[in-house]
From TrEMBL:
Homodimer. InterPro entries: Ala_racemase/Decarboxylase_C, DAP_deCOOHase_LysA, De-COase2_N, De-COase2_pyr-phos_BS, Orn/DAP/Arg_de-COase, PLP-binding_barrel. Pyridoxal 5'-phosphate binds at G237, E279, P280, G281, R282, Y379. Substrate binds at R282, R319, Y323, E351, Y379. GO terms for molecular function: diaminopimelate decarboxylase activity; pyridoxal phosphate binding. Its EC number is 4.1.1.20. This is Diaminopimelate decarboxylase. It comes from Acidilutibacter cellobiosedens. Its cofactor is pyridoxal 5'-phosphate. Transmembrane segments: none annotated. The keyword Metal-binding does not apply.
């Protein structure tokens, strides 16, 4: 077994069978993470719910797996919602997010009876009331609050601070106005609050601070408006392992801390503990995916560096160029060879910044070798583009030595199909 195996499948064989670049997703990994959520959160605590943040990776097959595992789905656009509708995902377990939902998206959500809509700004309230009235429905909502805490992550994926496009700020009485307004609306039922403080987080202190802030709000709205908070959704954001330091922490590291603080605050403020909901994305899928590439041109600049170019790059993985994200990789057909060269893995785009990995330790590398970049399950396929008119790779699902195609490779004609 000198090749690299993933999901008990030989990745070199997968590359031969399906071509490269290729996203490979392990169904077993997803199930393990869902099991961890069940054992360490859903079964451990009463009044809990977990939804998968589908923005991390969504296809019809992924939605089917999440439905089978019994988790709900966080969707953030009409497109994500439509995917869920197409596989008959249980609509009561859908949470619809977004900081600028369109009327059409709200209509799609309400018509399909989504379980909850998370209100990001008060403008949405009237739109929802109007649409819900039209369809004669009552819509459950949560207010997304910006708790005003700073998280330790890249500024593009930090969301809980005061200066953010997301959520309703705490400080201008807006929540009181919002609550007073919805309490009188016939077609809206306010269940509680939501916050999401950022992504790829490793510390639980920010969650704890945010829980305390929101618990303060729960007390305030109970005392002043008589509103009882039934649900609190604390978002996702749990970090995973990419390269170097930063091992994925067990789920309970975060959820025990969140639950502990929530229970403490509720006792302190004499509140009934609301249902606690979490919505991780990356943590469920990130380490469950790899990307396979074929190595092409190798350019050695003596005394400077060696660029090893692969047949993909920023169109299938924009994270290194967007967030300076770091990845680990292996040469899949030389997994046992000693790694004694240092190279830079470049993409094939007409763009200097299209570098997937700087300074990767590899064995002696040649054109035709297969490179596997690790932990590409989250925010790769879902953020892929057609930059330079490069078709999107296929996606293969592996489980216990078996592989199946779940998304076909895009063709040139696929890219042209809407053009007139
Ligand atoms: N809930 C809400 C409201 C969110 O905005 C997000 C992520 C999540 C849950 C899931 O967060 P996760 O558990 O996956 O960290 N494209 C970036 C990540 C953007 C995350 C946006 N919101 C990246 O590639 O790192």
């Amino acid at each position: 077994m000198s090749n690299f195996y993933f999901g008990e499948c030989d990745t070199v064989e997968l590359a031969k069978k399906y071509g490269t670049p290729l996203y490979v997703i392990s169904e077993d990994y997803i199930k393990e993470r869902c099991d961890e959520i069940k054992h360490d959160f859903l079964l451990k605590y009463k009044k809990t719910m977990a939804v998968y943040a589908s923005k991390a990776f969504l296809t019809k097959e992924m939605a089917r797996i999440i439905a089978r595992e019994g988790l709900g789905l966080d969707v953030v656009s009409g497109g994500e919602l439509y995917t869920a509708v197409k596989v008959n995902f249980p609509m009561d377990k859908i949470i619809f997010h977004g900081n600028n939902k369109t009327e059409e998206e709200l209509e799609l959500a309400i018509k399909n009876n989504v379980g909850r809509i998370v209100i990001d700004n008060l403008r949405e309230i009237d739109l929802i009331e109007k649409t819900a009235e039209k369809y004669d429905k009552r819509v459950n909502i949560l207010f997304r609050i910006s708790p005003g805490v700073n998280s330790h992550t890249h500024k593009y994926i930090s969301t809980g601070q005061v200066d953010s496009k997301f959520g309703i700020p705490l400080d201008d009485n807006i929540i009181h106005r919002g609550i007073k307004k919805v309490i009188n609306y016939k077609h809206i039922k306010l269940l509680g609050f939501h916050f999401h403080i950022g992504s790829q987080l490793f510390e639980n202190d920010t969650y704890i601070r945010a829980v305390r802030v929101i618990a303060g709000l729960m007390k305030e709205v109970k005392d002043e408006l008589g509103f009882i908070t039934k649900e609190l959704n604390t978002g996702g954001g749990y970090g995973i392992h990419y390269a170097g330091k930063g091992e994925r922490k067990p789920l309970k590291y975060f959820t025990d801390a969140i639950m502990g603080e929530l229970e403490k605050c509720c006792t302190e403020y004499n509140l009934e503990r609301p249902l606690l909901m979490i919505e991780p994305g990356r943590w469920i899928i990130g380490e469950g995916g790899i990307t396979l590439y074929t190595i092409g041109t190798i350019k050695n600049i003596p005394g400077v560096r060696t660029y090893v170019a692969v047949d993909g790059g920023m169109p299938d993985n924009p994270r290194p160029s967007l967030y300076s994200a770091k990845y680990e990789a292996v040469v899949a057909n030389k997994i046992l060879d000693e790694r004694n060269e240092i190279v830079t893995i470049a993409g094939k785009c007409c763009e200097t910044g299209d570098i997937l990995i700087w300074d990767l330790k590899v064995p002696k590398i040649e054109s035709g070798d297969i490179l596997a970049i690790i932990s590409t399950g989250a925010y790769n396929y879902s953020m892929a583009s057609n930059y330079n008119r490069i078709p999107k790779p296929a996606v293969v699902m592996v489980s216990q030595g078996k592989d199946k195609l779940i998304v076909k490779r895009e063709s040139y004609d696929d890219m042209l199909k809407n053009e007139i």
